[in-house]
Amino acid sequence: LSEYFSCRSETTERAVIDFIGEGCFGKVAKCLDLKTYKSVAVKIHIENDENDIKCEVEMLEAIRTLDPEKKNITRFLESFRFNDLSCLAFEILDRSLLDLMFERDLMPMTLSEIRPVIHQLLVAFDALKGISMVHTDLKLDNIMLVNHKDQPYRVKLIDFGLARPVSQLKVGDIMQPTRCRAPEVMLGLRLSEAVDMWGVGHVMAILCFGSSVCCGPCEYDLMKFMVQLVEGSSSPGWRLNSPEEYKKEAVKKCQQCQEGLENEDAMAFLNLLRSCLHLDPSKRLTPKEALKHPFITMIHLVNDKDTNSYAGEAHQLMAVCSTCHSDEPGDPGI
Questions:
Q1: Is 288 marked as a binding-site residue?
Q2: pTM to 2 decimal places
Q3: For residue 138, which of 51, 59, 198, 55 has the smallest C-alpha distance?
């Protein structure tokens, strides 16, 4: 594959301008539609199994029933074959959250920047839950900024290559990147949409702290870390902090929050984070429940948005959400 060749489908012809991404599946090309003269992204499968490609197309056809703007999901245009390669065409987006974090030298985002991102992800996962689909592969490089210059922190969920209907999830299925893997996946327990909410919690932690909350090169180390976090350990070096100690340290990490509104916002963030990372999937918040959480609704900030700079900035950054899903539960009513 090289630049400056064209790929033709039954509906149009597209000129390849550049290659903007790659993975184990193949490459993603930025193309110019020679009929509309609009840029599109074309995912070109090179190595994938035909059954895997068929499953991905089925999932993409299923999400076509969802409004890509209101539900914050990538717009799928069509699937086609060119030179015996399977190709998938999508709207062109800006760059991933992973790219943004690297541009910031992995400097943590503020809570006011994190909130609209998580709000939009929750809307996307609530929509997927509504059609009984699990994404299974949430990570920073699968969260795309739409147009960061004109719409700061407007995001969409991409890459449905590993998505599955809930009915097809089987005990023992391996999914999610290792460091993002939910405990029920590691333990071979019954799986549900709750695995995606674990992924949301993991994303929240990375954006806030600049690193994963779980550490370890393998599942055993990850599970040991999770258990020690919840239950403590006989080793003095692994003593579990008291709730007061935990809050004190966590708030310190949450951008050195001051007393007052910032402190209250940090507490709301940490409460939502812990609710998404509950070891028991049945006790994890659903997307709909999370959309009603105080961190998302900003109920503790609403009365001060005109008089307090922190509350004002929080509401300003959440404005990007109001144009996408004003009818959703937890809408901040901006």
A1: no
A2: 0.86
A3: 198
Tell which CATH classification among 3.40.640.10, 3.30.1120.10, 3.40.50.720, 3.30.200.20 matches the domain 9-91. 3.30.200.20
C-alpha–C-alpha distance, residues 129 and 140, integer Å = 20
The answer to whether 150 and 79 have CB atoms below 8 angstroms apart is no
The token pair that represents 5 in the structure block: 């060749």
- From 49, 105, 137, 141, the catalytic residue: 137
Stated length of the chain: 334
Neighbours of 221 (CB within 10 A): 13
Residue type, 273: L
Per 3-state DSSP, the chain is made up of helix, strand and coil in percentages (nearest 5) of 45, 15, 40
Answer whether 9-91 and 97-322 agree in fold: no
**How confident is the model over 20-35, as a mean pLDDT?**
89
Average pLDDT over every residue of 243-252 = 57
Question: Which letter does DSSP use for residue 257 in this model?
Answer: P
Active site residue 52: no
* Of residues 256, 295, 300, 289, the one with CA closest to residue 273: 295
pLDDT of 108-161, one tens digit each?
Answer: 999 999 999 999 999 999 999 999 999 999 999 999 999 999 999 999 999 999
Give me the chain's average pLDDT, please. 86
Cβ atoms of 232 and 240 within 8 Å: the answer is yes
DSSP letters along 83-98, please?
Answer: TTEEEEEEE----BHH
Domain residue spans in the chain? 9-91, 97-322
Start-to-end CA distance of the chain, whole Å, equals 47
CATH of 97-322, one of 1.10.240.10, 3.40.50.720, 1.10.510.10, 1.10.10.10: 1.10.510.10
pLDDT of residue 330: 54
Closest CA to 42 of 97, 5, 96, 69: 5
Structure tokens at 151: 């719409």
On whether the CB atoms of residues 224 and 215 are closer than 8 A, the answer is no
